[in-house]
Design a protein that fits this description.
The complex is a heterodimer of chains A (about 400) and B (about 400). Helix content of chain A is about 55%, strand content about 20%. Chain A has two domains: about 1-50 and about 260-395, no CATH class; about 80-250, no CATH class. Chain A is built from twelve helices and twelve strands. In chain A, helix 2 (about 15-50) packs antiparallel against helix 8 (about 255-300). The two termini of chain A are about 25 Å apart. Chain B is α+β, with helices and mostly antiparallel strands and about 400 residues long. Chain B has two domains: about 5-55 and about 265-395, no CATH class; about 95-225, no CATH class. In chain B, the strands form two sheets. In chain B, strands 2-3-10-5-7-6 form a six-stranded mixed beta barrel. Chain B has a two-stranded antiparallel ribbon with strand order 8-9. In chain B, a hairpin with a 2-residue loop joins strand 2 and strand 3. The model of chain B has no long low-confidence stretch (mean pLDDT about 85). The chains are: A alpha+beta (about 400), B alpha+beta (about 400). The interface between A and B is large, with 69 and 67 residues.
């Protein structure tokens, strides 16, 4: 048995050039699959991080039921408005921890003789807990009745830098839509989220925002609950309470962070698989290369096959010799490709830090497994051809 | 030795090992077919997007309330200065090149007829909207030409909404309830389907000021403007900005041109097509390696023949070209077959999904063919050189 394996290995070494080329084919295939899926997986993790930065036990309620239009709440405009009273009613649902009613708009923030058009969020002081986002300097305005406006504002770090530079901004005044507000806090940097630059924004009391924007309706209510298990209970609680308050009509949409994550995860997995499959075409072509070479090898080694058959080797053993040879070629090629793929990934990580790449160990394992399988599959036909050879004919072949 | 002889020598080399040749060919075929199919999908997506935009009307500009210095999403949420109907009227009056001006308000509301009800999107707009967005009527008429501030109690239904509410009944002239408002149905839109994520079949349209009163809104959702010609788009954009900045005393609006959105989209799709095509083209390299391998074998098998040719006075260059021809022949034949296979696959796809205009772009077809030929020549070079450098005496001896 060991003898047979040695025979296979000797054949690989004897035709060095040929073997290297066959391996190279599989190697390129595996490397491209590894590289592409790593980029896909990296992107998935990156986006996952984007979503989970606000915590996963988060529920968003928007006005308007989206039955035909994809984006709920972007249009707004229902006759029963989502109000601060609604949000206070929701806070009493068991399991709900913190709640932030929100009004959202764009406007010009002026301060220190400069002005900048940015996103303005009318919120309550619970933002740091609900969005899991710390205040770097100062603090939010004190808790109180959200209907009463306090003339205070918290700035995103980018907005602060644009208006006040490196100077201390706490205690300074900014003007938004004709209202003077004192800066009491600067948020920590958070970055972009789905096209909204959270750092280039101002956070002001909801009553002030509703007055500035002349709105009598909330854009969104965000709430957190204490444990993921409570999601369904809280969701149905929210639905019941709001439907009751809105005269029996469900004219709002509830989006749970978990549900969004699920949808998103699925999409990214499909994309990664599709891209990996496109890369896999190379693997298929590589397999055809091995098949061709093994076929040629069987033709060339008829004498050898005849000889080992005549000294008592069975057909199965002959078949095994060629299968082992094909599988070894493919596996070595796979390992080569894995090394190259991982190498290129780490190069990317150094050269292009913006492009997220991640190779999970299971991918590496799969890559090697796939290459073994590819080798076996590609080797089957030639190996059978070898096994079917008549020993006497084979010996006589020139 | 003539060219014909050379070709015959190559052809014999290939046909003598039918299976081997077929397998080398297959690699290139798969590679080229993959490139053709994938670029066809990418191109199809690009054309689909262009069609979608074209069906939304040409030379369209959209005024959105709100502006941010940070690039990204605009047109959501509140603004200190409303975008008003007066603004829309001012644009219509002072921007001569603005061909059509359609102010829009928007919301969701329940539409009720008898016992049947349906929650849909409501667009408040004017008669100008129909021509700007190229909407067709199934029956009845679109919103009347009336003073924008008047807002009569009439409604135009999307075909799906009309079907769901009036099963078999004639909707025109009937009174439906939109939220708390009684309105007369004056028209039903022709079937449009979903355009850019908006289902034009399942909505209702009302006069713009009716819509604003209904939703208790002071600000328009946006103003849709159609420029008279493509050349006017930029002029119109600038004039609108000037008019509104003057009226609001600050720049708190964003003007989006549909062309710029479209060109962003198509640019992204083009890059995507290129990347996917390039990934598929990696398989052509692998196929090339396969060809090289087979050619190496073929050179070593035909060592004696080569020795004989050399002994007969055939030059190095000719030997080189014999084997190069062989490699190039395999790869370009594989390329042609791949093209046929890919083309057939795309035809089948288009047959199954006629909405999706998949078609391989011309550049991809040429690139695939040229690359497949180049692959053969490149990877054939090493084996061919090996053959041409053989020492005739040793070669004849079969060593």
């Amino acid at each position: 048995m060991w003898e047979l394996v040695r025979l296979s290995l000797r054949a690989i070494v004897a035709h060095r050039m040929r073997s290297i080329l066959s391996m190279l084919g599989i190697g390129i295939g595996i490397a491209s699959v590894i590289l592409l899926t790593s980029i896909g997986e990296g992107t998935r993790l990156f986006m996952l991080g984007q979503f989970t930065q606000f915590g996963t036990n988060l529920l968003a309620i928007n006005p308007g039921k989206a039955e035909t239009i994809g984006v709920p709440g972007a249009l707004g405009g229902t006759t029963r408005k989502l109000t601060i009273d609604d949000s206070e009613a929701l806070a009493r649902i068991p399991g709900v921890e913190k709640i932030v009613p929100m009004v959202f708009g764009t406007g010009r923030v002026e301060g220190n003789g400069l002005g900048r058009s940015v996103f303005i969020y009318g919120v309550t002081p619970d933002v740091p807990e609900v969005w899991q986002w710390g205040v770097r300097l100062g603090s939010f305005w004190p808790h109180g009745d959200p209907r009463k406006s306090v003339s205070q504002a918290v700035l995103g770090p980018k907005l602060k830098k644009e208006l006040f530079g490196t100077r201390n901004a706490l205690g300074e005044f900014v003007r938004i839509g004709g209202t003077r507000l004192r800066v009491v806090g600067i948020m920590e940097p958070k970055g972009q989220f789905l096209g909204f630059d959270l750092d280039d924004s101002a956070y002001i009391p909801i009553a002030a925002a509703m007055r500035i924007f002349n709105m009598d309706e909330l854009t969104e209510i965000d709430l957190t609950f204490s444990h993921a298990r409570l999601l369904e209970g809280v969701e149905s609680g929210v639905r019941r309470v709001l439907t009751d308050r809105h005269g029996g009509r469900e004219d709002f949409s509830i989006t749970s962070q978990a549900a969004m994550l699920d949808v998103f995860d699925n999409i990214m997995n499909i994309v990664t698989m599709a891209v990996g499959a496109i890369g896999g075409v190379s693997l298929l072509v590589g397999a055809i290369g091995i098949l061709t070479m093994m076929w040629i090898a069987v033709g060339e080694r008829q004498n050898e096959i005849g000889l080992i058959r005549s000294v008592g080797a069975t057909r199965q053993q002959v078949q095994l010799v060629f299968l082992v040879e094909a599988a070894t070629l493919a596996t070595l090629g796979g390992l080569l490709g894995l090394g190259a793929g991982v190498g290129i990934c780490s190069l990317i990580r150094v050269a292009l830090p913006g492009l997220p790449v991640h190779t999970p160990p299971v991918f590496a394992f799969l890559a090697v497994t796939v290459s073994v399988v590819v080798g076996l599959v590609a080797g089957v036909t030639p190996a059978r051809r070898a096994a079917q050879l008549d020993p006497i004919e084979a010996l006589r072949a020139e | 030795m003539s060219l014909g002889d050379l070709l015959r020598f190559s052809a014999r080399g290939l046909s003598g090992h039918g299976l081997r040749t077929a397998l080398s060919l297959l690699g290139v075929t798969i590679g080229v077919a993959a490139v053709v199919i994938l670029t066809a999908l990418g191109e199809g997506a690009r054309r689909y997007v262009i069609d979608q935009f074209a069906s939304l009307g040409t030379n369209i500009l959209i005024v959105v309330p709100g502006k941010t210095e940070t690039s990204g999403t605009v047109g959501a949420g509140g603004v200190p200065n409303d975008l008003t109907l007066e603004d829309s009227v001012a644009i219509e009056r002072s921007v001569a090149a603005a061909h059509r001006v359609a102010p829009m308000s928007m919301g969701t509301e329940q539409v009720t007829y008898g016992e049947r009800r349906r929650q849909v999107a409501i667009i408040g707009t004017t008669h100008q909207y129909k021509d700007a967005r190229q909407l067709e009527m199934q029956k009845g008429s679109f919103l009347p030409e009336e003073e924008v501030f008047r807002g009569s109690a009439v409604v135009v239904l999307g075909p799906k909404l009309a079907r769901e509410l009036f099963i078999g009944e004639e909707p025109i002239g009937q009174v439906v309830r939109v939220g708390g408002w009684r309105m007369r149905v004056i028209g039903v839109l022709a079937k449009q389907g979903v355009k850019m994520g908006m289902d034009f079949d399942d909505l209702a349209m009302v006069p713009v000021s009716t819509g604003m009163r209904m939703f208790n809104r002071h600000s328009l959702f946006r103003i849709l403007i159609q420029a008279g010609s493509h050349a006017d788009v930029d002029i119109v954009k600038e004039s609108i900005r000037q008019v509104l900045v003057e009226r609001h005393e600050e720049e708190d609006i964003t003007v989006i041109t549909q062309d710029s959105v479209l060109s962003t989209f198509t640019a992204i799709l083009r890059v995507l097509t290129l990347v996917v095509g390039a990934i598929a083209a990696i398989s052509l390299t692998v196929a090339g390696i396969g060809i090289m391998n087979v050619m190496l074998v073929s050179v070593s098998e035909r060592t004696r023949e080569v020795g004989l040719l050399k002994a007969l006075g055939v030059g190095r260059r000719q030997i080189l070209s014999v084997f190069l021809t062989e490699a190039a022949f395999i790869s370009s034949l594989g390329g042609l077959l791949g093209l046929g296979l890919g083309w057939a696959a795309v035809k089948v796809l288009v047959g199954l999904y006629p909405v999706f205009p998949a078609s391989p772009p011309a550049w991809a077809v040429w690139a695939a063919l040229i690359v497949s030929l180049a692959v053969g020549v490149t990877f054939g070079l090493l084996p061919a050189r090996r053959a041409s450098r053989l020492d005739p005496v040793h070669a004849l001896a079969g060593r």
